[in-house]
Amino acid sequence: MTNPELPMPPSANVSDGFRPIPSVFAILGDAAAERSAQEAVTLAGARIVASVGFGEARDRLEMQAALDVILIDAIGAHADDVDAALGVVLDTARETGARIVAIFEEEQLDAIAAPLLGEDVQLLCAPSLAERASALALAGRSGRAVFHDSGRENEATRLRRLNEQVAEIAQALAKLTQEDDSYGRQPLRDRQSDYAPPPIAEAERSNAVPTDVSAAEVRDVIRLRRLRARFFDAGLFADPAWDMLLDLFAARLERARVSVSSLCIAAEVPPTTALRWISTMTEAELFEREADPHDRRRAYIVLSERAADGMSRYFASAKQAQLALA
User: At the top level of its lineage, which domain of life is listed (predicted)?
Assistant: First the structure.
């Protein structure tokens, strides 16, 4: 039943022809998740076609012929139940083309990320309602959306209607985020500048292969970056991609392994943001995922050979140019 306090999905306002209404299969950890799921799905302009617990997920998913989105809310669910359901969720998503949106608590991060990271999945750690709705809207619009074409509309008209519906969703989410304290601050933007650092000589760029860079030196760079938080708001300097590169490079030199949760901590940003960056860096072939041979609920992240070579040359070039590392 649609909550009367929430706006109707944009698709509900379309009375003819073109009606993209993404279908959501919800797997929920407890009864408290039902309210959040319904609110988020409604705001995203989608509809829930089934809502089940983790114990029922396997049997019910096998009955579903087609899906756009599989929503997993593991908060409050038993670890064994979640683990048993994730395999069939992945199989169903691959067979149907459905997108996955997974919601979980920080303590569940490694267990959820181990099987799902790197797949076509949005991972949300303790998200707000706005984050849930945004993820579902994105998943629904990029997945196997259901289109009912009456044949009376041409392609231009259908695209115009789709743009209007996406705009309505964006407006609803914008209104919601304005009321959410976690989205209260406007993002800071750098001023435009024409300054560029002097180029590193080509010989330095190609031959800079350090033989003496140590893990301690890399850790010193990380500590220097963290020192800024003692004097300024740490959020002003958020640079998760670089922070994770530094942490993984230090770990490589130490011959240590870094779990997904540990890397999220190193990123110095909220876990959901860190997970997005891990996925981005993996797609860019800078990070690689390695399964834990002793615990399938844990995965490790390492630098690719290309990324490791780039970090080595960066440190070598900085040393040769006698530049401060940061």
Answer: Bacteria
